[in-house]
Write a structure and sequence with these properties.
With 169 residues, the protein is α+β, with helices and mostly antiparallel strands. It has 2 domains: 1-29; 39-168, Thiol:disulfide interchange protein DsbD, N-terminal domain (Immunoglobulin-like, Sandwich), CATH 2.60.40.1250. The protein is 16% helix and 47% strand. It is built from 2 helices and 12 strands, in the order H-H-E-E-E-E-E-E-E-E-E-E-E-E. A hairpin with a 2-residue loop joins strand 7 and strand 8. The longest helix has 19 residues, at 5-23. The N and C termini lie far apart (84 Å).
């Protein structure tokens, strides 16, 4: 029995699409690597509340922790294709981010390529945020955007909330 050209194309397309879905089901790396990538990569620690002078620029130190076995790119990664860690505050919440100062990253080399050095954050790090708040109580949800990796794989970029109650007096 002979198949026409359209049937061959349909069969090839079905196999190709099936292959794409099957690829997503293949576990990447060893069990330990998969478990590390399931953990919360970055946790916002504190402060939960700050009181600042209304209408004046005030410095607030934000504390974060990177999960053990993971690293995230610093704010100034060494390659332009790497995703930098950034902090932001949305407009219209009564608090404006005037600037954010980030720590220098630590040098990190991957076991598979010891010639390449990355600039990363590990363990705990802080971001110095200079904010200006209008008078009143502002429950804001800032955002930390980052990409976490272990020595074998990277997770998709992620944005976590940074909830702070800012009181402008």
């Amino acid at each position: 029995m002979e198949l026409n050209k359209a049937a061959w194309v349909a069969a090839a397309l079905a196999l190709g699409i099936g292959g794409l879905f099957a690829h997503g089901q293949i576990p990447a790396g060893d069990a330990a690597s998969r478990q590390v990538l399931k953990t919360a990569a970055v946790e916002y620690l504190y402060p939960e509340q700050v009181t600042v002078a209304a209408g004046k620029a005030s410095d607030v130190t934000l504390h974060f922790r990177v999960a053990e076995g993971l690293h995230i790119n610093s704010h100034t990664p060494k390659d332009e294709f790497l995703i930098p860690t950034t902090f932001s505050i949305p407009d219209g919440v009564g608090v404006r981010l005037e600037q954010a100062s980030y720590p220098a990253g630590e040098d990190f080399t991957l076991p598979a390529d010891p010639t390449t050095r990355l600039s990363v954050y590990t363990r705990e790090f802080t971001i110095q945020a200079r904010i200006v708040a209008s008078p009143g109580n502002h429950l804001l949800e800032g955002k930390l955007h980052y990409q976490a990796c272990n020595s074998n794989a990277c997770m998709p970029p992620k944005t976590i909330p940074v909830a702070i109650d800012v009181i402008g007096k």
